[in-house]
Amino acid sequence: MMGSIIEQASSYAAEIDQVILVVAVLGGFWLLLTEGVLFYFLFRYRRKRSPRAKYMSGESHGEKAWIHWPHNLVIVCDMVIIAFAMSAWYNIKQDLPPADATIRIVGQQWAWRFTHPGSAGELGSSEDVEIVDELHLQVNKTYHFKLESSDVLHSFSVPVFRLKQDAIPGRIITGWFKPTKEGAFDIQCAEICGIGHGAMVAKLIVQNEDDYAQWIAAERLRTKG
Amino acid sequence: MGTVHHSPASQSRLASIWHRYLFSTDHKVIGMQYLFTGMAMAIIGGFFAYVFRMQLAFPGKEVLGYGLVNANNYNMLITNHGAIMIFWVAMPVLIAAFGNYLIPLMAGCDDMVFPRINRLSYQIFLLSVLVLIASFFVAGGGFGGAWTSYPPLSANPAYNLTPNGASLWLLAVALEFVAFLLGGINFITTLMNSRAPGMRMYDIPIVLWMIVIASVLFMGSVGPLIAGAVMLLFDQTLAIGFFDPSKGGDPVLWQHLFWFFGHPEVYVVLLPAMGITAEIITVFSRKKLFAYKTVLFTTIAVGVLSFFVWAHHQFISGIDPRMANIFTITTVIISVPITEMMFVYIATLYGGSIQFTTPMLFALAFLAEFLIGGVTGIFLGASSADIYFHDTYFVLAHFHYTFVPIAIIAVFAGLYYWFPKMFGRMMNDKLGHVHFWGTIIPFNCIFIPLFYLGAAGDHRRIYNYENFPDLMRGHMQDLRIVATISLLVMLAFQGVFLYNFFSSMFRGKKAGKNPWQANTLEWVAESPPPHGNFPTLPVVYRPPYEYSVPGRSSDFWPQNEKA
Ligand SMILES: [Cu+2]
Ligand SMILES: [Cu+2]
């Protein structure tokens, strides 16, 4: 369902979309059923067809059963939703798979600063490449990110990855993702951060190994020279 | 001295009007003060929505009646639209206006227990309105850091660039809370102590229960926020640094304080709306409320649970990820009592004799639309789905599907229903129907496209989506235009309401005491009720929803009628 509205470009996009689908199906079922019964009653018991109302308190056991059964079924559906939501949450936010490379992301009013690691995939070497508003990644590599903010709250959001994480000044927040599709995508800031919030956009470029190697070599030359 | 001389007579008349309408301690007048102030604020909030929706649909074009909208204006408009609609429309109208007007009348007493505290409550509220409006015009402009006012953006003028606007805005919010605290004390005390003789706990009309439980929720949740607001004010003005990490503070602390209040707040406004709906659907289906006690106890359950769900607003805000699991469970579980209440209301309609008057249409629309708001909330309560939906238009559409039914649709239901009591005349039912369809259809046409846009990636508080290539694909801009045009239509139809409301006040058909043939005590009083409400205080003999009792020729049975 979600895949047809917006591309899935990370390893966990499909998993999140599946949770959304489960909620849509179960929630949609109850919504249609409840609205259906409501509109049926409005039609069936309009004054013209039903000039005198029934008298019932709804306190007797038999009458309450009409409420309790659907209510118990709602609890069952809730359990299913909670199970799906929690297992996806665990995989995405609690469990950190080993990384092929680590990047640094810094939000500031009103730009994103990205540090690309050296060839060992680790930050802190002389090979680091820092650029503003453009992030280059290799497809099918697992990345850890270190997310920081230098002023106010920002939120690092890549809709095609189904990834969003607030950046908080004074903290370094670690997370992960694995791009699965080559191409150019939007990076947003999803937390209001002042006047420039609406223009705080960056570009994500996911490349294959060769293209990435070429790009980063050129970039290193450019920044050195 | 000036040259104009008032005769003593006209002077005393002026003084008496001044005294009667501005310094009255009559609960009905205070209710009206809240109502009309709330309606005026709704016009401001609606105008702001019009301006920023125009900017979104037609970016960079001049907006009729406002001019060009820059990023700064845009942030100020959305911030204050949200704050006004929640704090200065939903709260004063649902709790304060209906609470003040209805509690003494429906409980069968002559006034609130503390009429002067009541008057003070409105005066502080009015002050908060003035401070808020002043904040739009001070140097640097109005506050634009969103109605949630997250620090460090809201705390540091170097970041928000509105040194005066931000502090005045916060002061206005704090004053408004004080006003409702005073009101809440009155509501609870009056309902518990001043009911008509014979009115036992289970004889209290549901709307009064709901308003009083809402007041308890408000009073229980607002303390941390007032403390937070004071801390934030210190950060803004003295740079103390409660929320500044470089001084050992923590910005996320504010989010906890804010949402510990902010989520119960949803139920603070929802409950009165549910109560209004209960009164109306029973009267216009001539049915007893299905399972009164179940409604009451689920309401209390919702209220208690609502204190344990706040962090669902913070799944991705940097809280410990393990905490998200607990709040997913509590949030999804709160759907149980809420659906229970919905089922009970629908069961009330079963076997009824349903009459589609204007108030009934609005009450039914409240149920039908709020259901959509409730179900879409589950996407956001389920932590992993919320990673994607958080801070998108999906969230925005979801909470407008809860807040518009609450603060607009249910309020209209209540106004059409109690108008005859308030002003002694009937509103025009035909115009009411026109207004109903002119509100409900465009309402859905605004927010259904916004659900889609949110799912497609539109994030919130963006003044111009042309900056985001991925958000200009396909028909996304067309949908933004559809939403804006629907808003224009919806706003235009509110003219029908205003015309109907004010012309019926003077020219409507005389209502009599009990035009809807309802059971509750407010319909025993004259329309409009005089100061003191009842010539002799009523005595209650039965529960409030005894409609269509078998063996009686009349299909209603007023609470005060002896056998
Ligand atoms: Cu931002
Ligand atoms: Cu909430």
Brief descriptors of the model:
heterodimer; A: 225 residues; alpha+beta; Immunoglobulin-like; 2 domains; 10 strands; B: 563 residues; Cytochrome C Oxidase, Chain A; 66% helix
Listing every helix as H and every strand as E from the N terminus to the C terminus, the arrangement of chain B reads HHHHHHHHHHHHHHHH
Mean pLDDT of chain A: 95
- Largest inter-chain contact set: A-B, 85 and 96 residues
Q: Count of DSSP helices of chain B?
A: 16
Count of helical segments of chain A? 3
CATH homologous superfamily placement of the largest domain in chain A: Cupredoxins -  blue copper proteins
What is the CATH C level class of the largest domain in chain A, in words? Mainly Beta
Largest sheet of chain A: 5 strands, mixed
Distance between the termini of chain A: 49 Å
* Form type of chain B: globular
Helix content of chain A: 25-40%
Please count the beta strands of chain A (DSSP E, at least 2 residues each).
Answer: 10
C-alpha termini separation of chain B: 66 Å
CATH first level of chain B: which class? Mainly Alpha
Q: Strand order, biggest sheet of chain A?
A: 3-2-1-5-8
The name CATH uses for the topology of chain B is Cytochrome C Oxidase, Chain A
Secondary structure topology:
The complex is a heterodimer of chains A (225) and B (563).
Chain A: H1 13-44, H2 61-94, E1 101-108, E2 111-116, E3 129-132, E4 134-138, E5 143-149, E6 154-158, E7 163-167, E8 173-177, E9 183-189, E10 202-207, H3 209-224
Parallel strand pairs in A: 1-5, 4-10
Antiparallel strand pairs in A: 1-2, 2-3, 5-8, 6-7, 6-9, 9-10
Helix pairs in contact in A: 1-2
Chain B: H1 8-22, H2 27-57, H3 71-107, H4 115-137, H5 157-160, H6 163-193, H7 206-238, H8 251-285, H9 292-305, H10 321-333, H11 335-349, H12 358-381, H13 383-389, H14 393-423, H15 429-455, H16 476-507
Helix pairs in contact in B: 2-3, 2-4, 2-16, 3-6, 3-7, 3-8, 3-14, 4-6, 6-7, 7-8, 7-9, 8-12, 8-14, 9-11, 11-12, 12-14, 12-15, 14-15, 15-16
